[in-house]
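Hey, can you fold this one?
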Amino acid sequence: MAVSLTQQPPLDRPLGWFSVGLGMAEILAPKTLGRVIGVGEQSTVLRMCGVREVVSGVGLLSGRAPATFAMSRVVGDVMDLALLGASLRSPDANPTRVAATATAVAGVTALDLYASKVDLQSSMAEAGQDVPVHVSLMINSPPQEVYQFWRKLENLPRFMSYLESVTELDQHRSEWSARMPGGMQLRWQSEIVEDQPGRLLSWRTVADSEVNHVGSVRFEPAPDGDGTQTQIRVEVYYGMPGGSAAVKAAELVSMAPEAMMSADLRRLKQLIETGEIATTRGQPAGRRSMIGRAFGKVES
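Sure. Predicted structure:
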């Protein structure tokens, strides 16, 4: 059965109270809870998780920016599963209890995914276009060539990390599909409202889309250049759930729209200039993560 984009998910309040209750247990009795779930005495990590749970729960119960706090629960679930996996390297861990806890967390994750998807779709469709993104970058390629690469919209998922696909329906309309954190998928249609070959593209999402934004990209010859370089300038106004407050929160985990767009343009630069995007996959690992260090009590 289809869910209305304006419907308030019935799971928000139960998940909010659950989050507050679990968070308080993690803060007040981390040693006892650690033994119950099989990870041993990890008081510091559990208290940190508890603070996150309480913040997410209070946010859901407040009814303000529900998509932001529902998404934080999904991200928290993923972190919890990673922590549980890492805890198996500790001699204090009880694998049977850890496995049972992971199964329970996976079930809660499914509920969080459902609630956050409905919240996110509703909030993104209704949010005002009040989150500005302004990003520019120099690319060693003529403006006409950079424009032609961008104008073929099917190229965009090659460097925009969140995009899965873009399908051109005609000269002006296209259908977009994006993968969000937690595996959620969003789809929308955009239409080009101005097209100046080699100079400018501007667009907007069509009515009733799951996201709401307008934007433009300019392809300008580099100042004092010989026409072989392009100053690309992207300007987008997003309807982001939670508005500027959500943007500030996203900056803490490098998921703010401006940071993501800057990274995308750097990938575009690599793709146009070298034909490929540099990656660190397969290279030797460096310093271990906080999760690895927190549960790294391995006997030598």
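Strands lie at 131-139, 163-168, 173-179, 185-196, 200-205, 213-221, 230-238. Let me know if you want another pass with a different chain boundary.
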